[in-house]
Amino acid sequence: MSALIPLGVLCFAIGLARAADAALDMDLMQNVEDANKSLASNIALRDAGASAKDAEELHTLFQTVEKHYLAKPEAPDGLALSRKSLQLTEKIQQQVGAQDFGGASGSATELSRTCRACHTFYKQS
Ligand code: HEC
């Protein structure tokens, strides 16, 4: 029985190492996709609270994306585009906070362009 415990710990450790290695996984980008869609519709609905929440969630997700590219000096455009996304999601939070939905909509369009720019560089499929 006792031999099973170290084995379990080992499997857990390997699982963690894998998770850290595959930081930019499909789940992360799927969450980015969902939050980005929700943000666009909440800006259109002029719902400041929900828009700010989506922008904040995107900001947190892009912090993970930034970390991924910080560890990849061979992909400087990914780092620059992660940082641009961080700036835009912060700006959107300020804009909806000030009820500037026109400005927020412009920033959201710019954010979507940033998504596409990064995918052109790095998305495999
Ligand atoms: C800094 C780079 C970068 C930015 C910015 C970025 N992505 Fe991605 N995205 C990727 C990469 C790389 C992949 C491919 C991941 C892989 O193949 O492991 C991807 C994949 C995806 C996928 C496919 C996931 C799947 O299940 O097939 C979606 C959807 C997606 N991104 C949405 C977005 C949206 C929406 C934004 C903007 C709000 C965005 N991404 C911004 C790098 C980025």
UniProtKB/TrEMBL annotation:
- Keyword entries, A-Z: Signal
> For this UniProt entry, which residues form the secretion signal?
1-22
On whether RNA-binding is a keyword of this UniProt record, the answer is no
**Does the UniProt entry include the keyword Cytoplasm?**
no
Q: For this protein, what is any one GO molecular function term?
A: heme binding
Biological process, per Gene Ontology: electron transport chain
Q: Which InterPro entries match?
A: Cyt_c/b562
* Protein's UniProt name: Cytochrome C
Protein's organism: Aquabacterium olei
